[in-house]
Amino acid sequence: MTPRAAATGDKAARAAEAKAAKSAETKQKLIDGALRTLVEQGIAKTSARTIAAAAGVNQALVFYHFGSVDELLAAACRQGSQERVALYREQLDKVTTLSELLAFGREMHEQERAGGHVAVLAQLLAGAQTHQPLAPATAAGLDLWIAEIEKVLVRILSASPLGEFADPVGLARAVSASFVGIELYEGVDPAGAERALAALDQLSVLASAIEDLGPIAQRAVRHRLRRSTRK
Amino acid sequence: MTPRAAATGDKAARAAEAKAAKSAETKQKLIDGALRTLVEQGIAKTSARTIAAAAGVNQALVFYHFGSVDELLAAACRQGSQERVALYREQLDKVTTLSELLAFGREMHEQERAGGHVAVLAQLLAGAQTHQPLAPATAAGLDLWIAEIEKVLVRILSASPLGEFADPVGLARAVSASFVGIELYEGVDPAGAERALAALDQLSVLASAIEDLGPIAQRAVRHRLRRSTRK
DNA sequence: GTCTATACATGGATAGAC
DNA sequence: GTCTATCCATGTATAGAC
Fold first, then answer.
1. CA atoms within 13 A of residue A164's CA, in its CB half-sphere
2. What part of A 186-215 touches B (C-beta under 8 Å)?
3. Is B200:A165 a contact under the CB 8 Å cutoff?
4. Which of A202, B154, B163, B181 is deepest in the core (most CB within 10 A)?
5. What pTM was computed for the model?
6. Better-scored residue on pLDDT, B217 or A162
7. By C-alpha distance, which of A100, A98, A227, A91 is closest to A153?
8. Neighbours of B114 (CB within 10 A)
9. Rounded distance, CA B180 to CA B185, Å?
């Protein structure tokens, strides 16, 4: 009960409040339904009808509350991404080395995959390619992930000999997009995707080896890099 | 005209032959139409009707020639991937260094992107996630790309100090899937994708620097790598 | 705020004429 | 082989009852 309704004791105010609560509840059901439908049926079969069925509400409510299916999907994408990213933010803030990041990234990927959350972004990305209205919301959802990864990369790379040659802004985008791609690949060839992830794991060993190189070897690498980028 | 028809001079045989040619032509129109529809309208709007419209033939012919929309899409995926990969095979066979591969990969990506060919795989991958019948054909299409990239990686890595720590089979899969992911990202944020690709370009400089390291520094890196992988 | 009913478009698939 | 016609399911969107 809001202070206003309590203070006035106004019956009409309390009723309005109850309605607002009900409305928020239905909206939430629809958002959850939209997320579940995207994961379970894919963008191709995601419609007002299938979402409403998953949400357990009437199909007409999609249009009443969100105006269109697209806007419901946009809202779902926003909320879904925000929730997921918030879950990992704290842990990500503690990551300090490249190999830690890669290990954590793999764990995170596994969890998201299991929960079907990467799939939401993948399906929306596929849909947005040819359906402009979905693009801004999808980009925004992906950007939440990118921003987190970027923060970590900036922190890590500035302390590494690779720092002056790598662009954390671009790499964060490359990594995020790649994870979506690998998720999609996983859907058609799980064994192949497993092998791909294992190969990346192995590469991380290489990266951390460079990080831990002795000062002389590091200088050699750094020198070599400067020479190649200058020309 | 087949030898048989020519030899017999049989009118019925010639007629049958003409029909077969017409059939093949229509099938081809449908396959081309399917590819164009996937690119221009996405998996969500790809249907027997939209494909037939793009192909300029009647909608019922999808079912007559392919049995179902899924099977038409599978055929289109197969043929499309084969054609595209064949286009690059010769050039890929000439690639001998990691930086050459990365430069070529970027060029190839640009071309495929412009022609909308990566988009076909991306849309089918998205569709296959929740629609099993599409999965085998999609995986097969992607595998054609993977196989080419794998061949090149094997060749390159065996001649590099990284060779004994990197898995070309897994990396080929990771790279292929990542390209699809970046393609999808490009659809919702072209500037971000451009930045991502630029960052990867920069990383390639790093890789080639390691390849060109002097013998002493290389030994240090190699030694360091052995130590990290052993534990 | 929510539901039922309803309109109208699009999609999958088949039968039968040509 | 191809086309027209057709059936029926699904999808978007709105109007009006409760």
1. 13
2. 187-189, 192-193, 195-200, 202-203, 205-206, 208-210, 212-214
3. no
4. B181
5. 0.93
6. A162
7. A98
8. 9
9. 9
